[in-house]
Amino acid sequence: MWGDIAIAFLLAFIVTFMATPYTIKIARKVGAVDVPKDQRRMHKKAMPKFGGPAVILGFIVAVGYLLIVMSLERKINLFGPQEYGMKLLRNVFRNDCHIYFLCI
Q1: pTM
Q2: What does pLDDT average to over the chain?
């Protein structure tokens, strides 16, 4: 179990590390950049403000890995009598959710 958690942590780190340069390029194209205009700013050059998608992607990959490994090892039964998998899918894809970035 702890080995799976360590692998998930490393997987999240690697995915986030690899996705960050792409999100920097997207931030520059979109204009999500903090440009220092006065002396109050901490940075001396323009800094992208679009790191969230890389972190979220790493988290999703790690959670997906843990769900797959745990279901293969029969530690969790996603589609058994409790129907955890269907409840998870129903909560993520429902239209009346209050978490706006999950709404479709």
Answers
A1: 0.70
A2: 82
